[in-house]
Amino acid sequence: MGKARTIRWPARFGAEGEIAAKPMGGDRHSHRTEAHAVLILQTLEDRSQAHLREVRATLQEHGATVSLSGLSRFFKRHGISRKKGRSTRPSRTART
User: Fold this and answer.
1) Quick one: pLDDT at residue 95?
2) Does this model's pTM top 0.70?
3) How big is the CA angle at 76 (ends 75 and 79), to the nearest 5 degrees?
4) How far apart are CA 76 and CA 42, in angstroms?
5) What is the structure's pLDDT at 26?
6) For position 2, what pLDDT does the model report?
7) What is the pLDDT of residue 75?
8) CA distance 57 to 91
9) Cβ neighbours of residue 42 under 8 Å, at least 6 residues apart?
10) What is the pLDDT of residue 34?
11) Within the chain, which residues score under 50 in pLDDT?
12) Annotated region Disordered: where (predicted)?
């Protein structure tokens, strides 16, 4: 048994009544993006066809640092679809 386990697990048993390792993994960074939810949603309301990079640029103008993947996950969590609208050109790779 490792040294850390011999110290932490009995302490956890005393505090929580459980002797096991805590769950690992999971989301630890979404709160950074969620902190700017109002600004993100306002940007999308002003420019509904904005690309992820444009939304990120707007956030950077306001001093917020958010990754493109973080924005993508934000949209998914909030059920925001990034479908192409009628004003968007058709894809060149589509069959004609």
Assistant:
1) 65
2) no
3) 85
4) 17
5) 80
6) 66
7) 93
8) 24
9) none
10) 94
11) none
12) 77-96
Domain with 50 in it: 29-80
Can you give the three-state secondary structure of 78-90, one letter per residue?
CCCCCCCCCCCCC
For residues 5 and 11, what is the distance between their CA atoms, to the nearest angstrom?
A: 10
Residues counted in the chain: 96
Is residue 90 one of the residues assigned to a domain? Answer: no
Percentage of residues of the chain with pLDDT beyond 70: 80
Whose tokens are 């979404």? That residue is: 30
Instruction: Note whether residue 45 is domain-resident.
Output: yes
- CB of 93 closer than 8 Å to CB of 55: no
1/84 Cα distance (integer angstroms) = 56
Handedness of CA 29, 43, 59, 85 (dihedral sign): positive
Based on the structure, what is the number of domains in the chain?
1
Whether 37 maps to a domain, the answer reads yes
| 86 within domain boundaries | no
CA distances from 57 to 7, 20, 28, 39, 72 (A): 47, 44, 23, 12, 14
